[in-house]
Design a protein that fits this description.
By secondary structure, this protein is an alpha/beta fold. The protein contains 11 helices and 20 strands. The longest helix has 21 residues.
């Protein structure tokens, strides 16, 4: 299968980075197709432990072309620093390319992000305040700045100055924001953007050429399907579309070229920030999941909210992105539970709902209908095949796969690359 899409099938933080890093060994091209540096992948491989925010996970394979697609919004300072950190640890970034159509995040976007959250008060969305939403808003309003404009240095700097003047006026008069440092910060961001010029390319053409040549292409998204701007728990969503359908838009390739869509989910559920979370636990079990699973944001360091696996939401995510395979991560985090619960339906006003509500606001009001499965009470981190797992762990995985109506492809039993159980044939 030459073209695969990897998506998060929950609210993000599912372990996509590890799966992409694993599959990148076989890939010729790895493309990040949406989001910004508000997301992160934690990867552990033979080079060490890395937290990536913009650079695609395929960067560790020197023969793999790593591409930041046009659907991504790029903080140039953050990207430059990420490149520097990789190079300092001996990782070459000569195989990195950035789409000329990717939009830039500028300092006024960060100020706008904070100002909007402050204005919302108790109704705040819980953004990372990285300027992602305002950058996408400018893109839609057609006043954004694209990476390709950096190639015309004079025109690029003129455009930034013109937009900065308007943004400064709005931030000062409407939001009463401190804009004194904005000109200097914009200068720093422009300099960083200009230093990225050697990486800029027509990445859509690169991907298309690779597909036509029968090379192996992997698309990776940020966040998860339940944070999708159109299909997530709006308004507590991200500002782009992590769903598989957007991979084609965010990379510049037609949908007829896609062969497989793998969804990544944890063996339990987590969420960062505000918004509904039907299976959230506020007890010792939730705290144990957080502690054992080391559930702290790669990008923000914030504690993740933890709860039992929400199979209703997982089946919804599978439908939205047309999953052809399921990858379950962090199964080992459940090692010490006598009983493990999963959500198989929602309940509200005495009625039971087997499917995700069509009106997202309704998710806030539901209670999970939980089913209890038997735990395995043993260390599974050394298992390398499905048959080596305890019968209870195998039964848990079968229950998840059957409910989601998606076949299992990968099970992760630890953070290291080798702590992975492939199911079936994973070769391209």
């Amino acid at each position: 299968m030459p073209v695969r899409i990897i998506v998060g099938a929950q609210w993000g933080d599912e372990g996509k980075g590890k799966v992409v890093d694993l599959l990148a060994d076989q890939a010729d091209v790895v493309v990040r197709y949406q989001g910004g540096n508000n997301a992160g992948h934690t990867i552990e491989n033979e080079f060490g432990k890395f937290a990536l925010h913009l650079v695609p996970s395929g960067i560790f394979n020197p023969r793999t072309q790593a591409i930041i697609g046009n659907g991504v919004v790029v903080n140039p300072v953050a990207l430059r620093e990420e490149i520097w950190k990789l190079e300092e640890r001996g990782i070459s970034v000569s195989n990195l390319k950035v789409s000329g159509g990717a939009h830039l995040i500028m300092p006024y976007h960060l100020l706008e992000d904070g100002a909007y959250e402050m204005a919302l008060g108790k109704g705040r969305i819980g953004t990372t305040r990285r300027g992602i939403g305002p950058a996408y808003a400018d893109k839609a309003a057609r006043i954004g700045i694209r990476m390709q404009e950096v190639l015309d240095r004079g025109g690029f700097r003129r455009k930034v100055r013109e937009i900065l003047e308007a943004k400064t006026r709005e931030l000062r008069l409407v939001h009463e924001a401190d804009v004194a440092s904005l000109p200097e910060e914009c200068g720093r961001f422009m300099q960083a953007a200009e230093s990225l010029a050697p990486y800029i390319a027509d990445t859509s053409a690169l991907v298309w050429k690779a597909v036509k040549q029968g090379r192996q292409v992997l698309f990776e998204g940020a966040q998860g399907i339940l944070l999708d701007l159109d299909h997530g728990t709006y308004p507590f969503v991200t500002s782009s579309n992590p769903s598989a359908g957007f991979a084609c838009v965010g990379a510049g390739i037609g949908p007829t070229y896609v062969d497989e869509v793998l969804g990544i989910c944890k063996a339990y559920t987590t969420r960062v920030g505000e918004g509904p979370f039907p299976t959230e636990l506020h007890d010792a079990d939730g705290e144990r999941l957080r502690e054992v699973g080391r559930e702290f944001g790669t990008t923000t360091g914030r504690e993740r909210r933890c709860g039992w696996l929400d199979l209703v939401a997982l089946r919804y995510a599978a439908r939205i992105s047309g999953l052809t395979g399921l990858c379950v991560t962090k199964l080992d985090v459940l090692n010490d539970f006598d009983e493990i619960k999963v959500c198989c339906a929602y309940k509200s006003d005495g009625k039971v709902y087997p499917d995700f509500p069509p009106y997202q606001a309704a998710v806030r009001e539901v209670e999970p209908v939980l089913e209890t499965l038997e735990g395995w009470r043993s260390d599974i981190s050394g298992a390398r095949e499905l048959a080596a797992l305890p019968a209870e762990a195998q039964a848990y995985l079968a229950f998840v796969s059957n409910f989601a109506e998606v076949p299992l492809r990968i099970v992760s039993v630890g953070p290291a690359r080798e702590q992975t159980i492939p199911i079936g044939e994973l070769a391209w």
